[in-house]
Write a structure and sequence with these properties.
Blueprint: H1 3-6, E1 77-84, E2 93-101, E3 109-110, E4 127-133, E5 142-150, E6 158-159, E7 174-181, E8 190-198, E9 206-207, E10 227-233, E11 242-250, E12 258-259, E13 274-284, E14 287-293, E15 300-303, E16 310-315, E17 330-332
Antiparallel strand pairs: 1-2, 1-3, 4-5, 4-6, 7-8, 7-9, 10-11, 10-12, 13-14, 13-16, 14-15, 15-17
């Protein structure tokens, strides 16, 4: 619609004059009846009588008094907005107000939110990220969280993951649980639970299971010993101890002065150490045949005029039999036939 008609005032052009086309068009003609004032002389429809026409500098059809910018024909009214994109990166910040517009809001103004912008003054950055200082470059940071307005990635020296347990060691960054410890490095462990700063795996000396084929370490502070043994004091150092057993932490062998066996029948005499059973049999006049059954070979003794014997005696490598009076044994070969008694 022409601006003049929209706002209620008229303008005249030569072709719209009543006598348009005549040689004397626009000149007074006494021979013709008065046709009234020219159209251009008519006041605007809505203008006060004899008032000036509305001013419309940009000729957008909106009077200057109503036009929000009478120097720009593309805008003429104020429209409300709720979001701004001042840097033109397609992301918005909350901002409300009105702006001189045309049929729609101009670029950079919107009533609908877009993706958030952390800095609407810089089109190169838009994403707000939180980072932690990564001083050792292992991909894990520590310290206070720091916000950064970015183009989508954190600046060098900062990472998104915190909790580095060793901020100065790139080989360690995460606490891992363990269930056993081998503090002395001897390959045997003791039960212990906790967490330790680690890398891709637990550090040496920390385990989730006990070493296969090894007993628990009896002393995890000494790599020379790890095996618990029950030992017996060996006072005469004959390799067999006596008395009550004692628990000792060892390297697998009894310490000096101790033995794994506690059966020494006389721990003050290194020549004897085991109790053996002997029995006297085959009685005849002046002759007794003695058989010894033990871990030792069969020993065959001939005794003259001895009484019947059945007892246990503390011995060494050979059976030592207590004899009555001045009788003395005479050894013979094992299984040798006994001599016949005299008649």
């Amino acid at each position: 619609m022409p601006a003049a008609r929209r706002w209620g005032y008229r303008t005249a052009s030569p072709e719209r004059l009543p006598d348009a086309g005549r040689p004397d068009a626009g000149q007074p003609d006494a021979a013709q009846p008065d046709a009234g004032p020219p159209v251009d002389a008519l006041p605007p429809i809505d203008a006060p009588p004899d008032g000036p026409p509305p001013i419309d500098v940009d000729r957008d059809g909106v009077p200057a008094e109503l036009d929000c910018n009478d120097d720009d024909p593309t805008v003429w009214r104020n429209l409300p907005y709720s979001f701004r994109d001042a840097d033109g990166d397609g992301r918005t910040v909350e901002a409300s107000g009105t702006v001189c517009s045309g049929s729609a809001l101009p670029p950079g103004y919107s009533t609908v939110a877009g993706d958030p912008d952390c800095d609407d003054r810089d089109a190169a950055v838009f994403a707000l990220l939180v980072g932690f200082a990564d001083r050792d470059g292992d991909g894990f940071g520590d310290g206070m969280a720091m916000p950064f307005c970015t183009a989508g990635s954190l600046p060098a020296g900062f990472v998104a993951i915190d909790g580095d347990c060793a901020a100065g060691d790139p080989a360690l960054w995460i606490d891992r649980p363990y269930s056993f410890r081998d503090a002395d490095g001897d390959g045997a462990a003791v039960p212990e639970t906790g967490e330790v700063c680690s890398g891709n795996a637990l550090p040496s000396g920390y385990l989730t299971t006990a070493p296969v084929g090894r007993p628990l370490d009896c002393d995890d502070g000494d790599p020379a010993v790890s095996i618990a043994l029950t030992v017996f004091a060996d006072g005469d150092h004959d390799g067999t101890g006596a008395g009550a057993g004692q628990l000792a932490c060892t390297n697998g062998s009894p310490p000096p002065g101790f033995s794994l066996a506690g059966t020494d029948c006389d721990d003050a005499d290194p020549a004897v150490f085991v109790s053996l059973v002997y029995t006297a049999v085959g009685f005849a006049v002046g002759t007794v045949r003695v058989y010894v059954t033990s871990h030792l070979p069969l020993v065959h003794l001939v005794l003259a005029g001895a009484a019947s014997l059945a007892s246990v005696w503390c011995c060494g490598l050979l059976l030592r039999v207590p004899l009555p009076g001045s009788l003395a044994p005479r050894p013979v070969a094992p299984h040798a036939p006994a001599s016949q008694p005299r008649r």
